[in-house]
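Customer escalation, tier 2.

The customer says the design service returned an amino acid string that "doesn't look like it belongs to this structure." They asked us to rerun it and document both sides in this ticket. The original structure tokens are below, unchanged.
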């Protein structure tokens, strides 16, 4: 854990620094990736801005409503303290996805084309973002005594305030980064059996399906306080189940459509 970085007399939240670095890289890398794939750099830059702004809003809104509503009702000004953390990825992804759909439709662009183009980067960005969670000490797992266990705070044990836990953030990082590399390899293939799958939404649906499975794995080991349970499941687990279904159905539907063309 390293929640703060100190440079001289300046203290910087590590989580905020990691997320800022990821967003900054996206500003440069996504237009380059678009140009490399024969797409518009300008459209890629604008789309990333839409994703960034609406994603931050949606991620924060989900955290406020579903994870710590009582705190923010009593101290509403703290909603603006973004540097303290408190974001829900699924909330950001949902808001960014809806906003992107409408923006691309208004701009006369194909949503599925851009979804396929951005899919590997979404996987990579999510994975790198979990590194910020690891340093911040949030999103930790259940207690364990495996060789790779990491000590995180325990709010229930005052005698031993730090207990060894599953580093669920690193599990998510490893799974998603490896998945991102697979998606990048798929996206870069030329003149192969994978070529008909490109730019049809299939790559995007594969990411949705895979991310849902990986998120369920992470949720199985998580032990941090993130709001109430619904039918014995966390909200993130329920959304992950939905993503698996949507990804599977979407892949089948887009595959059938691509075969007709």
């Amino acid at each position: 854990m390293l929640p703060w970085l100190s440079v001289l007399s300046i203290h910087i939240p590590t989580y905020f620094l990691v997320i800022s670095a990821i967003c900054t890289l996206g500003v440069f890398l996504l237009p380059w990736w678009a140009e490399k794939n024969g797409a518009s750099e300008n459209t890629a830059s604008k789309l990333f801005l839409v994703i960034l702004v609406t994603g931050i809003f949606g991620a924060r809104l989900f955290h406020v409503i579903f994870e710590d509503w009582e705190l923010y009702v009593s101290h509403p000004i703290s909603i603006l303290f973004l540097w303290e953390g408190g974001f829900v990825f699924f909330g950001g992804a949902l808001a960014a996805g809806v906003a992107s759909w409408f923006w691309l439709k208004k701009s006369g662009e194909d949503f599925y084309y851009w979804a396929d183009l951005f899919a590997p980067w979404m996987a990579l960005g999510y994975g790198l973002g979990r590194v910020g969670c690891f340093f911040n000490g949030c999103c930790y797992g259940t207690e364990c005594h495996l060789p790779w266990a990491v000590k995180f705070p325990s709010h229930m044990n005052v005698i031993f305030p730090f207990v060894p836990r599953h580093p669920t953030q690193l599990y998510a990082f490893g799974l998603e980064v490896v998945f991102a590399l697979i998606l990048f390899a798929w996206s870069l293939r030329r003149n192969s059996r994978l070529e008909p799958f490109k730019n049809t939404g299939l790559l995007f649906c594969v990411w949705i399906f895979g991310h849902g499975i990986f998120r369920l794995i992470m949720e199985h080991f998580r032990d941090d306080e993130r709001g109430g349970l619904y039918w014995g499941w966390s909200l993130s687990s329920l959304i992950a189940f939905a993503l698996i279904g949507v990804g599977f159905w979407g892949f089948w539907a887009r595959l059938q459509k691509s075969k007709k063309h």
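Tier 2 assessment: The sequence is consistent with the input. The CA atoms of residues 212 and 240 lie 4 Å apart. DSSP finds eight helices and six strands in the chain. Sent an explanation to the customer and offered a walkthrough call.
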